[in-house]
Amino acid sequence: MLQRLLLRCPNWISPPLPTSHQLLPPSSKTPLFSWIPPAPAPPAGQPSSSRSHNSRPALRSLSCTSAGGGGTESQPLQQHQGMAAQDEKDPRLARISSSIRVIPDFPKKGILFQDITTLLLDTKAFKDTIDLFVDRYKGKKISVVAGIEARGFIFGPPIALAIGAKFVPMRKPKKLPGEVISEEYSLEYGKDAMEMHVGAVQAGERALVIDDLIATGGTLCAAIRLLERVGVHVVECACVIELPELKGRERLGDKPLFVLVNG
User: What residue stretches are annotated with the Phosphoribosyltransferase domain (predicted)?
Assistant: First the structure.
């Protein structure tokens, strides 16, 4: 079923992006603009590449969506479903989305990989990405930012520092040196596990789980279960990119998800 979904990809490479993108919540900041030209389209008659659940496929027109919820009664996160209204566009998303490079045939032939390392080279786009998350989560009494290996380690620490939370790495098996607790999850072929140090979090703490991309949602679900097993309240999950056709948001159930751009 997943492979059939992946073969439907109509894009070879990112098309020219619109001049503004939708983001929840809106911001008053005025961004600077730059443009990274898209790569050329494939030759006529060339078939589109397929996708896999762990690839970063070519982005179509990128827009921001958010499932709201997760805040306290006194400091709720904004409640939103679906797309933002036209007056809630945030043009910072144009720079962020245009700075994500597409690498064909990586890590294997037929995959279009979304490479965020080019976003990290653009200091304005990288800062805008962190600022958008910080604007959403500051003042929400979040004490834990849990980053999923490995790209969650890039975005998690600066967000944690900015909102006054600790950063907790969620790692693959045999990567953490101390005593750990583990949560197993299913992959398309086989199983994997997520681990966290014993004592890294305490019951009653409020956590944000962050990664660069949500595809099928398996790793996010494992991280949520791991935190909730020790009594942590997961306020929300956050990602830079979402691949909505892989229905990872649905797998999270009623757990809120906030993303910057959709693929």
Answer: 132-255
- CATH numbers and ranges of domains, the chain: 140-262 (3.40.50.2020)
| pTM recorded for the entire structure | 0.70
Q: Each residue of 222-235: pLDDT tens digit?
A: 999 999 999 999 99
Among the listed residues 184, 188, 229, 250, the single catalytic one is 188
Candidate list 151, 171, 206, 249, residue with the active-site label? 151
Whether the Cβ atoms of residue 195 and residue 230 lie closer than 8 Å to each other? no
Is 151 a known active-site residue? yes
Task: Compute the distance between CA of residue 160 and CA of residue 177 in angstroms, rounded to an integer.
Answer: 22
Smallest CA-to-CA distance from 242 within 230, 256, 254, 229 is with 256
Give per-residue pLDDT as tens, 119-163.
999 999 999 999 999 999 999 999 999 999 999 999 999 999 999
Residue found by looking up tokens 């604007």 in the block: 135
